[in-house]
């Protein structure tokens, strides 16, 4: 998971990386949810990595936002309200709980970190193949 750890670690201030609560949630979202395990992994996972994340945004009518993070154009911002509509109440509650945060605080931080995390995970401007080691 070298690239994922580097990207999340850089966003979370260096050494903390995926071991921080928000870093763990980002790793779960970008890596497909395999890291969380147990009932929490089922709650958070299922996104299918970056490809699944982009699909969730497309289903919510926000595919153009997620695609801007994947591509080499400037990242479009995403609001906490947009993230709420993409993930839904149950998934937001699960991710916020995993991060140890109130849902609104969690969504606010996620809206800041997610665009850069996705952009960092797609340096070639393409969604990585799930079989490829990220």
How far is it from the N-terminal to the C-terminal residue, by CA?
A: 5 Å
**What's the average pLDDT?**
78
What's the overall geometry?
globular
Order of helices and strands: HHHHHHH
| Strand elements, count | 0
**Helix-strand makeup class:** mainly alpha
- Cα-atom radius of gyration: 13 Å
Relevant terms:
134 residues, mainly alpha
Structural notes for this entry:
This protein is mostly helical. Helices cover about 65% and strands about 0% of the residues. It contains seven helices and no strands.
Summarize the structure.
By secondary structure, the protein is mostly helical.
SSE inventory with pairings:
Layout (H helix, E strand, L loop, with lengths): L1 H10 L9 H11 L6 H7 L4 H11 L3 H8 L9 H20 L3 H19 L13
Helix pairs in contact: 1-2, 1-7, 4-5, 5-7, 6-7
